[in-house]
Amino acid sequence: MGAIVILTITMGSIHGMIQFSERAKEVIMELKMRERFLHDNVKQLKKEVASLKNNVVEILEADIIEENITLKHGVRLLRVQLNEASGVSASQEGKSKVCMPYLSLYS
Fold this sequence. Notes:
Layout: E1 9-11, E2 18-20, H1 22-86, H2 93-99
Keywords: Coiled coil, Kinase, Receptor, Transferase
Protein name: Wall-associated receptor kinase 5-like protein
Organism: Corchorus olitorius
């Protein structure tokens, strides 16, 4: 998955300091830039994922609201048809709810 980079380290005789070769310094800088680039990409992708999740939630909420409205209209229509079939007038509809309480649960 990851690449292993072998760096040549030369020991300087003065003060015992470790010095990297020029190529090693270039590789280190390239790796740091690549790390920063990848980190920025990950942050951007996380933001995009969060935005997509929010969009999906909004779409689903709108669909649920629309479906709820459709179902309410359907229940009202069925109630009217049931009342017409049983001979209950619109003025007596309140009384029919006492006889059929399950119909009022969804309206």
